Fold DUF1540 domain-containing protein.
Amino acid sequence: MNDSRTIVKCSVSNCNYWGEQNVCKAEQILIEIDKHASAKYSEEFGSEHFAEHKDYANNSSATCCLTFKPKSE
């Protein structure tokens, strides 16, 4: 298995996975279309497997990141 990872940039600095230079530090990332944004997914994505399904988005503004977890203060 190739261990190279895609670098994901994110500007949401209050996310638990946000890192320096806007780099996401999450082990896995779940991105969903907005019509499913209210789905009840666990916030502990690091070791979980996501339910696989296919959807279509017309543009990036129709998507959202469900991996977001607020930083503990």
Remarks:
- The radius of gyration is 13 Å.
- The mean pLDDT is 77.
